[in-house]
Structure formats: structure tokens, C-alpha cells
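TL;DR need C-alpha cells for one chain.
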Amino acid sequence: IKVCGGFGIINFDQAKRLADAGLSRDNHNLETSAKHFKNIVTKHDYQSRIDTVKAAKKAGLGLCTGGIFGIGENDSDRIDMALQIRELGVETVNMNFLSPIKGTPLGDTAVMRPREILRLVSLYRFILPMADIKVAGGRAMNLRDLQSWIFYAGATSIISGNYLTTAGRAVDEDVRMIEDLGLEAEIN
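>> reply
TL;DR here they are.
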């Protein structure tokens, strides 16, 4: 069993203990670009996120690092984050898309347009040609009927089922979508 986990901000000693205990991969997202980060997160700084990814890598853990889109960032922020992810040597890149929830700070934000997401997946595939591009949170809400197109745009995997704070699609629907495309579903 490959065990993946997300532990927030950790240092090298903590990452090493997790690796020694059998953790395979640390999931730690950058969220956005360094420039835009302060507009979204106020409890810690961007460098602490970078340091955590570097500590996990140094400890021998695989990296699952990406961010969330549709949070007020611009194209430069999106490119900057992709370049930072490439510099860090991340193997798996999570691409999450905001699912606005009323009453939250970004609750009135419009969902992203499907073609904008497909363009973004293609951009990340171009910048990160060797990475596993994983489309995750917000996929169903933002892509709607164009979900299957992510694989043509360059995605290599998805997270199926429910996410941390929002509902996703049923796993059997995603497996059927993948098979309809003539692809093989590998369930991990």
C-alpha cells in the first residue's frame, strides 16, 4: 500500500519520521503564486509552504503539490506557480478549482469556465511535461459536461468521489467516463 498524507507545515525531522513510518508521499499545495498568496492566506507565509515541500523531498517522500484556481489570481500567478512547482521537482500536481460556498470569503466568486480550465490544464502540461497532472477538487462543478476533455488537455489522473469540503461524482461514473474514452482506469 502506498500511503499518502497531508500534514500541513512540517520540517525535515517531521518529514523524515513520517517517511520512516511508511508514508510514501506528502500532499502539500502551494495554493497560488508567491505574489497572490498574501491575498488568500494570512496565518503563515508562502516560504513556509516552499520549505515544507523541500523538507518532504529531502526526507525521501514523493511530492503531490499544486494549488487552487479561481481564487482571484491572474494568468501570471498561474504561470508563476507552475514554474515554482517545476523548480521544486514535484511528481504529482494537484489542480483544484474553487467551488464557491455562500458565506465564505470567496463565496460570491464566479465558477471558472470549462474552456478556461482546459486551457489551464494544457498550460500546466506544457510547463510540467513529466508530471502527473491530477484534476481534483471542483472538477464536477466547474467543468460540468466537459470533464472528460481534461485528458485530451493533458491531465493524467483525477480524484474521484467527494473532496474535503464539497461533493464530487460517484466513482463508478468516473470509471465509466474513463472507459468511454478508451482509457484504462487504475484505481489507487
